[in-house]
Amino acid sequence: MQQNIFSDIQETPKRTLTYVHSCRTEDGGYFFARIPPSSLRDSYFAVEVLKILGKRPLHPESLEQFVRSFLQDTTLQNIRNLYFSTEIFKNIGGNLESLRSNYKTVASSPWLYNCLNSSVKLYVEVESELEGVFQTVSSFMSLGIPFDQMAVMRLVSLLLNKDGSFGRRGGSPLATTYDAVRTLTLLGRYPKESERILSFLKRQEQNIYFLEDLFYFSSIYFNLGGKFPKSEWAISFVRECQRNSGGFARARLMGIATLEYTYYAISLFKQLGVF
User: Fold this and answer.
1) Is the peptide bond prior to 191 cis by the omega test (within 30 degrees of 0)?
2) Which stretch of DSSP H or E encloses residue 198?
3) With CB atoms counted within 10 Å of each terminal CB, which end of the chain scores lower, N or C?
4) Do residues 155 and 183 make contact, with C-beta atoms less than 8 angstroms apart?
5) Is 47 part of any domain?
6) Facing residues of 258 across strands?
7) Residue 265 to residues 20, 45, 47, 245, Cα–Cα distance (Å)
């Protein structure tokens, strides 16, 4: 049966590449709606998909120019933009040194200090309460900017719950657990509570309805050195999320293809051994 599943998706990389290239717009970036202005977030997902498939953007110089248009504003709310920019530059060979001044501004901001040292107050503006922390840590490590790793460890540990999940009120435990585990992994700190985390995942398996849920599940297993136990089911789930365009949607029976969900799908195929 495993052989049949794999043979059915041999054309997936080619179809996906066609979809990603179709999302490139005239301003050099990518946007799932295929009209300018492009989205830096979508451009990040597009480049990540291409990397997994062993390809590069068709016109990296235009993409770099597009990315630089986002680097004028170094305020706190753009830490995600800075993260996306760093990851794109890493993949296309952009000048990472030119990004260091942007991160130095963020590194000296009150937000980073409060985020890494507060035991009471967290600002929840995204699904995962630790997304901004992971993006900051990842970018600082990529650019060689020093930061207090122990403060990050304390913050992540603070959000560990008795059931093995991470997070507080207002966020998604699954998404926050994903960011907690990948932050610890990035820091070279294998989670001490890995068994408790895996127990939490097993209790939540029946609640997988959307592609991002499956991505979080599989990625947590992957970062803990394992593999999602229901591989064949997972592969079938992802296959059913693909649309005629070659891209992937959030759910099996409804939704349009986007670069974000295409990234989740191709990452899952990679983790599950399809590619």
Assistant:
1) no
2) helix 194-204
3) N
4) no
5) yes
6) 248
7) 13, 11, 14, 14
C-alpha 132/C-alpha 125 separation (Å) is 10
Residue 13 in any domain: the answer is yes
Which two three-digit tokens encode residue 207? 């609640």
Amino acid at 6: F
State yes or no: cis peptide before 60, omega within 30 of 0: no
CB atoms under 10 Å from CB of 75, counted, come to 11
Residue 156, amino acid: V
Of 94, 92, 96, 131, residue with least CA distance to 115: 131
Residues 1, 90 within the same domain: yes
Q: Are 159 and 110 contacting, i.e. CB atoms less than 8 angstroms apart?
A: no
pLDDT per residue as tens digits for the range 129-150: 888 889 989 998 998 888 888 8
pTM above threshold 0.85: yes
Q: Mean of the pLDDT values across residues 57-80?
A: 79
Place of tokens 């939490």: 200
Range of the domain at 82: 1-95+226-275
* Residue 114 and residue 57 in one domain: no
State how far the Cα of 231 lies from the Cα of 191, in Å rounded to an integer: 23
Cα–Cα dist 28/85, whole Å? 14
Same domain, 135 and 191: yes
Half-sphere exposure of 33 (CA within 13 A, CB side): 6
Residue found by looking up tokens 């939540």 in the block: 204
Q: Packing angle between helix 100-107 and helix 110-117, nearest 10 degrees?
A: 60
